[in-house]
Every structure is written in structure tokens, then in C-alpha cells.
Please model this.
Amino acid sequence: MSGKIKEQYILLVPPAFWLLVFFIVPLFIVIGYSLSHTGADGAISFKMTFEHYLLSFRGMYVVIFLKSLMYAVITTLLTLAIAFPMAYYMAFASSKMKMIIMFLIILPFWTNFLIRMYSIMTLLGESGLINSALLSAGIIDEPLRLMNNSLGMYIGFIYWNLPFMVLPIFSSLDRMDVSLLEASLDLGASRSQTFRKITFPYSVAGLVAGIVFTFIPTLGNFVIPEFLGGSDNLMIGNVITAQYLQVRNWPFGSALSTVLMLVVMIFISLYIRFFDPTKSKSMVSF
Amino acid sequence: MAGNLARGNDLNIGQGTGLKIMTWAGVIFLLLPLIILIVFSFNDSRTVTHWEGFSLRWYKAVFLDDSLWLSVKNSLVIAIVSTLVTTILGTMCAMLLGKYRFKGRELFQNLLYVPVILPEIIFGVAILALFMLIKFPLGLISIICAHITFSFPFATLIILAKVINLPPSLEEASLDLGANRWQTFIRVILPNISPGVVSGALFAFTLSIDDFIATFFTAGVGSSTLPLKIYSLIKFGITPSINAISTILIVFTVTALFLTDRLQKSERIGRTVKLTIGGVFLAIILGLVAAPFFTTRGKKLNLYNFSTYIDESLIADFEKQTGIDVSLDYYNDNEELLSRLQMGVSGYDLIWPSGYMVKIMQSRGLIAPIDYRNIPNYKYITSALRKLSYDTTGKYYIPYAYGFTGIVYNSALIRDSVDSWNALWDERYRENILMLDDMREVFWAVYKMLGQTVDDDTARLQKALEMLVRQKPLLKKYESNATQEMMLSGDVWIAQTWNGLAARLNAIDPKFKFCRPREGVIFFVDNLCIPSGAPHKANAEKFINFLLDPANSATNMTTIRYAMPNERARLLLEPSLRDNGIIFPDISDVSELEVMQDMGPFNKKLDKAWTELKVK
Model:
């Protein structure tokens, strides 16, 4: 069918062209930078060199990479622990309640991220609202240190990621057919068995998507460590940003970016290999 | 779909009290910062931390701030246009991936995921590099292209979820019954996937309106968006007017969503009315988009300055006097200014670089000599600052304002008088000390403390690093933006900061005292420069002359609270300001005036030491 083939190309060409011009070409330019030489004053000369990659694998930067990975892993686990019950509750709530909670979860997105971070700072500070409330209630004698350390950073990361974890898990649980649960319970399975054998497997697709959407952006974030972290909460994103905006060493920043990009790509390929959302469908080939 | 049953309730699955509490606790956690910012937008005080009574003054301030509204308008135009394109591209892409299997499909899909999760800074730099290479002018269009690129993969994934649930038989039936492909798409497919398309579009809109990083890299003359504006305001002390504008946006969005929902559901409102409302919206949007193309008048002047570094009422006066249309954009630091100009953002007529940056820009041919014959008021400029080390010819710059970095402290908490950099190493203030988050400032302070000059010497750098490693456990953090808030709230007792900021704190509460450490300080001088190829050079010179007029200069100093090298203007200030030792440091001994220099290749070593310090 010639009409069929035509439609595929009409659908393929504009998005692919856009992605090529505005995404793939720019990434190759960055890779090009990473192999260039940095001159005095940060001028870039295109003499091929691997010095920036060699530097990237020096002890200090490896430590920062590993630290960033650790922050991202812990953040992901904590966010998951908070998000799963929320998604679970939402999936079984009445459809009106679903809409309300969904709306409330999305609402913060319409306020600028930086402003929300400032708001969180007024909450967590030593003379902030939480500490003042606890102090005046006599629960604590000295203000708790809730930010400018790793704890503050985790609070910020969880706040930032929570909606991205809740929504995908919710949407996969929401697709589940409730009669399966009825059947399971009727046939004598306990509630925990039903959860393990039916509910949980249904949530896996959303769970994995949520993990990817939380883990990888956290890995490259640099704003939250700056706002809520302390004097030693440095992440790889901060180092990269500094190369572009303060040190004027674009090639080194590009080399670090390329390494980070490779790490991210590995995660994505694994994700797609095992959890391709479209894999099970039969499709037209061309 | 089974999912829409009000289900589970007869089974009581997932409705336990524990779950309920956890869910609502999570929702409250997400909303709490919003509630706080709404409450504090009505606070009758400059600070955003302490409640001092109800007031609408910040709303008034917002409505009077033209540049804020311009940035809101830019944000809306960018978000609307990029959402439209994103939705179309995303739908195409979702249809493709949902229906067809083809060679390279997996690769294509992999690529699609990359923009979704690639750290945005990498994307920002990459797309900027592209625009530089093809010499594409930065502005609204470049920002829109960037936003489409990172949001259309998101939209695709959301729409794809609906497309893959679409039974192929539906499409086949439509085609069999004689509809053509386009009709099938419009009448059959689109209505079925429309919830996905709508959420994809909403998501794209949200991403665009809130984006900071990619916008930061792709913005040009006159295209500042709300997040960019907010960022530059935060840098110089956040005021509740930001809370006010956020509150307005929240109310606006909620109302819009509510009305849309009502309109969609309502049976009584006819199709014509709905179409009319839609049409009106579309007309407003088109008007907003098209407006910039019609408002360009003949006489223009484009300024590019730090935020809150000029009294904006002076700009209005200048416009009135000369009929020249002035636009003002902001940058946050010298490095940003440099990268902007190097990237070929052209169109600015007047910039405010610091001394060390003047030298770099001159050596790269980014600034042009100034014609002093057109600036008679140059005669008021203190001669001591006319030919400083960064441009000994004095042809490329006119000193605008100067100041230095010292120590601000809360004398209610620190009883001893502070007179040395050593105070920042004092054990008694453990975890209540703040250093600037700026490698030059931090290292320079140590060099001064050790009585050394800053030069390219690795051994000295190592020694300075050791000092800083010793200091680190005593610090609350390295911080440049929130110093004012943290001092006001009492979270920090003592901080390394600029004298102008200290003067502002001192004006709020005299318990905040400032010290110029006895070991010496490093000065900064910010300057007026005209970029090479400035399109309205004559107007820029006219404006410089206007700024140097003693009366105007005095007005300007009163607002920004930094000293300007204009003796006549200083005499016009009110006494409390004129004799303020914080704002007007003694610079009579010029030989001692050490101005911050650029270190060239030493920067790299410095950065390594700085990173090492932060990792330890």
C-alpha cells in the first residue's frame, strides 16, 4: 500500500529532522569541544587533545562522580518510599478524589522552581517556620539543622522529584483491572499475596519510569546543592556549570558532560531494553 | 476502561487510614512552600521571613514594574508558541512509534529519551554552540527552538501512552467505511487520543514557562523571561514582589483551568460561544506574538546591566527628555556578560563590566573606544580612577561605581569588635560563618590575610588552600545569593560580603556592622563600556553623559548604595549617605587601591584548588 508508506514518512521526517538539527548536531559540537584545546583566557582552539578526559578521571573528579551517584541513589529510594503509597492510594480512590489529588500534585509546577526553593528555605532555616513552631511548642530546646547539609539537600531533591515518581506509578496502577483483585481475593489469596502477585507487577512499568525520571535528573542537578546543601555538598553538575560560567574552560566542561552523558545513555539503553513501553504491541514494519 | 470504575471501595483496597495520612502528608509537603509564598506576598516588610502585618504594597509594586511585565509577556509568548509546535511534533512522533516498526526504531526511541533526562546544562550549552556556529541571532526564536527540543520528547511519551491503547481495528473500520486518512485522523484517532494530547500540551507549557537553564543560554537582547528575571532578582536579595507575582500566576492558572473545565463540560453554552471564546484567546495570543514587530521606533538604546544596579526612574526621565526608547536586560555576573558577547549576542549599546573584564574584553576586541567629546560630563569623574591598571589608556571605560569585599557581622550576637579576616576563622562562631560562593573572592581574602599579593605561584596557592580547608568545618556554607536573608534571620552571624550589601543591611538594622579588615581588601570598579558594533553608539554616549550629570548620579547612588567616582554628586547626597563610611571607603591613597585582576591561565589552577576544597 503506497498510501501507508507515505504516512510513515510524513510522521517520521519532521520530528526526526528537528531532533537532528537541534539536538544531535549540538551534542556532537559539545563532543568536539571536549577534544579541543583550551587557550589562555578560555579561547578554544581546535587542536585535538585527550587531556580533558585524562583530567576527568583524576581522583578528585571520580570522587565527585561517585558522590553524585550516591546522592542520586539515596534520593531515588527515599522518593520511591514516599511516592508509592501515594500512588497506590490515588489509584483506588474515587475518580473525583483522583482528579483533586492529581491537580494538587501538579499545582506547584506553575510556580517558578527557584521561588519554591526559596520558600523551602524559609521553612527549614534555623529561625524558619518549622524550628520556630517546634521551639515554641517546647519539643526542642535548640533549633534543628534542617538545611545547609545533606539532609536539606535530600529534602529539596525529594520535593523536586516526588510528582515525577507519583504520576507514572499512579498511571500504571490505574490501568489495572479491578476484577483481577476480586478474583484473587475470592479464590482465597491473602491481601499481601494479592499485592505481591498482582498489584505490584502491574506497577512495575510506572515504577521503572519514575525511577529513571528521578535518578537521572538528580544526577545532573546543580541548583539544589547550591540552595540547600552545605559547604561540602558538591555534585558533578556544579563542577560542569563552573567550567562554563566561571572558569571559562568549555573543553573540560564538555569532557565532563560527555562522560556524564555516557553514564546516562547506559541507563537509558538498559531501561529501553527491559521496559520498552511499546514492545508488546504488534506493529506495522517498514 | 476498567480504571475509571469507582472501584475498590467495595473491597476496601488501598483506602486504609495509614495510606490516607501518608498521601495527604505528601500533598501538603508539596503545597506548603506555595502556601508560605502566598501568605508572605501580603507581608508588610521587605524581608520574606518575618511577618510584620498585612499589606498590598508588593502587588502595587508588581503592577508598576514594566520590566517585570515585559518578562511575563515574553514567557507567555514563548510558552504558547513552543507548546503549539511541541504538540504537533509530539503527536506525529507518538503516532509513528505507536503504529510502526521500522529500521532504526530503537535508536530513534533511544534518542528521544535523551533530551528528557540529559542534564539540562549540557543541552543548554550544546544548543547555544549550534546557534553560535550558524550565527543565528539569539532572542525569542532561539529560546522557542530550545524549548520545543526539550519538551517534545516529553509530549511524545505522554501521547504515546494513549496511542498504544488504541485498537488498530478502529482506524481500519474508518478507512473501510470510506474516510480518507486525514478525516480518519481528525474524526476517529484524535478524539480518542485527545486526553493524551491535552496533557502533553499542558506538560510542554509547564516546562516552558518554568524553564531557566536552557533559556539562560539562548536568550538575547530584549527576550528576558520571568524565570531569568527572578533569578537576577534573587541574586540581589529577594523581595516579596516575587511572591506577589507568583501568587497572581497561581490564581490566574487555577482560574483558567477551572473555566476551561467548565466550558468543556457545560451543555448549555453553545458551540458558537465556545468558538468565540477560543477565537478571542487566539487573537490575544497572536497580538502578543506580533506586537514586538510593530513597536520598534526609530530611536533606540539597549542597555545590559546587573540587576538593581541602576535607578530605573532615571531611565524613564531619559526617555522623556530625548524620546529615545530604552530597553534594559540583566546579567548576573561578568562571566555571563562575556560569554554573551562572545557568543555574538549583538545589539547591546551599553554594558557595565568590572575592571578585570574590561581588560579581557578589550583584548578580544569586544568593546570600542569611547568618544569623550560627546560626554562633557566626564569632567566630574575623579581623576584617580580614570586610568586604572586594566586599561591604562583610559579610552575604553568610564568608571561607574566601586566598592570592596569585607566582613558584615551581627553585633547583637558577636560582642567583640571585628577588624581582621581572622574573624572568619574564629572557633566561637562555628557553623555561623558564611563565605562567598566565588573562588576569586574566597582565595583573594586568604591571600590578603596572609599578607601576600595574588600571583601565579603554586606554593602560595597550596598554602591558601590549607587555610581554607581548616576553615571549612566552621562554615555554614559558601553562599553568594542569600547572604541578606541569612543575616536577617539570624541563621548566620558573620559573613564575607560586598560593602553595598552591608550598607543595605545596616540601613535595615544598625546592629549589622561592617568591617574593612586591617590586612587590606581588594576593590572592584564597575565601568560603563560600549560594545564594538553597538547599533546606537551615539545614544549610548548621550545616556552616559546623562548618568554622569551630578544630580542624576546622586539619585542613582541613593538607590543602589554603591559609591560613584563623582565628587560633585557626592556633595549633593543627604548627609547620612554622604558621610557613610561603609559606602564611601577612603580611596585617597591610590597606591593601596588594589583592583581585582583577571588571572588568565591561573584560573584553571584556582578552579582545581576550589574544587578540591569543596570535595574535602
